[in-house]
Specification:
Elements (H helix, E strand, L loop, with lengths): L6 H15 L6 H8 L3 H13 L3 E3 L5 E3 L1 H24 L7 H8 L5 H11 L16 H6 L3 E2 L8 E7 L4 H9 L7 E7 L2 E6 L2 E6 H4 L2 E5 L1
């Protein structure tokens, strides 16, 4: 009997992949925080996913995707990426809004529609937030010469490469401050906050926010 993949299962698998991409060791508590669901709900979901051969659970409770689980997660991540690009490139939706919209639409996209999106948009590797489609991680970003802004030093001239896209409040703040992928910034101070100059204005970011913005040398 074919394995039934529900929206709930897709969300859990995708969340594991996304948390991994942020450098986290994924455990049950990670999914409670990431998905905003109760601990008992996560416990039941882990049992189902493990039973279905979609995840493995380590001795210390760490969760990893099996090959089958990663295939499903990657399919969702690819669709999410395509929908974000569709919303910005075809419909002109603001970049800081598209993640939330794509979260709702990604489960409704058929394989036929996905192929149409690829035909129309191509296979560019980055979403409107600058993040690579598929698996990425802090170590991969560093190998590409990027660093989070909380590691920047006064005098650094940098180009914003990517932004953590799952914090709508942060995205709206950055957009209002003129900080988005492709924008050049100069670091003027790095103490309790990171002070940036861009397009003739000065912006201050708390270090927690700055850690979610990755940039490379200008």
């Amino acid at each position: 009997m074919p394995l039934r993949i529900t929206i709930s299962k897709e969300n859990y698998l995708k969340a594991i992949a996304e948390a991994e991409s942020e450098g986290e060791t994924v455990k049950a508590v990670t999914l409670v925080r990431w998905l905003g669901v109760s601990a008992p709900a996560v416990t039941m979901a882990i049992k189902r996913l493990r039973r279905d051969g979609l995840i493995e659970v380590g001795d210390e409770g760490q969760l990893t995707l099996t090959a089958a689980g990663r295939d499903i997660a990657n399919r969702l991540l690819n669709r999410h990426h395509l929908i974000e690009r569709m919303l910005t490139e075809i419909f002109g939706l603001e970049w800081y809004k598209v993640h939330d919209e794509a979260e709702q639409l990604e489960h409704a996209v058929s394989a036929d529609f996905e192929r149409k999106l690829i035909d129309r948009l191509g296979t560019a590797s980055r979403c409107p937030h600058g993040n690579q489609v598929g698996m990425d991680s802090p170590s991969h970003r560093r190998r590409r010469g990027l660093k989070p802004l909380d590691e920047a030093r006064p005098g650094d001239r940098l180009v914003v490469a990517s932004v953590f896209e799952r914090d709508r409040g942060l995205l709206e703040y950055l957009d209002g401050a003129g900080i988005r992928p492709g924008v050049e910034v100069e670091v003027s101070a790095a103490d309790a906050e990171i002070e940036l100059r861009t397009a003739g204005r000065t912006v201050r970011l708390e270090r927690a926010a700055a850690s979610k913005v990755w940039a490379g040398d200008a």
